[in-house]
C-alpha cells in the first residue's frame, strides 16, 4: 500500500533561490533513493509538501522534516493510504515550483489530474491550488 502525507509549515527565514535549489536537489536525491514522489512548493515563507511512497519511507522522511531547523509550525493536513500516486508522472516525480513557468505547468498537471475523478486527489489539488493562489 502507498501512503501520502501532505503538510504545510512556516520557514524560519526567507529562503533565497540558491538555498531553495540546494534544498530541492538534496530532497530530490533522497526521495528518488527511497522511491518517494510528490511536490514541494515554497511561497511567502511557507512550504507545502506532498510525499507519496512506501509507508515506512514516507514516515521516516516526514520525521526528518519535522526535526529540520528550517521549519516551524508543521501541520500535517493529510496522512492516509492511497491506491495510486498522485504526482508520480509530474516532472519526474518530485519538483519545486520557483517560477511562473513552473506554476503554469503545475496548474496544467492539476487540471489533468482532475479528470481522474479521484476524491483524495481532488482534495490535494484543492489544497495545492489554495496554497499557490493565496497572497
From TrEMBL:
InterPro entries per UniProt: Acylphosphatase-like_dom_sf, BLUF_domain
Residues annotated as domain BLUF: 2-93
Source domain of life: Bacteria
SMART domains given in the database record: BLUF (SM01034)
PROSITE patterns reported in the protein's UniProt record: BLUF
Protein name stated in the entry: BLUF domain-containing protein
Amino acid at each position: 500500500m502507498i501512503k501520502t502525507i501532505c503538510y504545510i509549515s512556516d520557514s524560519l527565514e526567507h529562503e533565497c533561490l540558491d538555498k531553495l535549489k540546494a534544498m530541492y536537489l538534496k530532497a530530490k536525491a533522497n526521495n528518488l533513493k527511497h522511491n518517494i514522489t510528490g511536490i514541494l512548493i515554497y511561497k511567502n515563507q511557507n512550504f507545502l509538501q506532498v510525499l507519496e511512497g512506501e509507508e515506512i519511507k514516507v514516515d521516516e522522511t516526514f520525521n526528518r522534516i519535522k526535526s529540520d531547523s528550517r521549519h516551524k509550525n508543521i501541520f500535517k493536513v493529510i496522512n492516509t493510504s492511497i491506491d495510486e500516486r498522485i504526482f508520480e508522472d509530474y516532472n519526474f516525480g518530485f519538483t519545486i515550483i520557483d517560477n511562473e513557468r513552473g506554476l503554469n505547468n503545475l496548474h496544467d498537471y492539476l487540471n489533468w489530474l482532475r479528470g481522474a475523478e479521484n476524491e483524495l486527489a481532488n482534495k490535494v489539488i484543492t489544497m495545492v491550488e489554495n496554497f499557490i493562489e493565496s497572497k
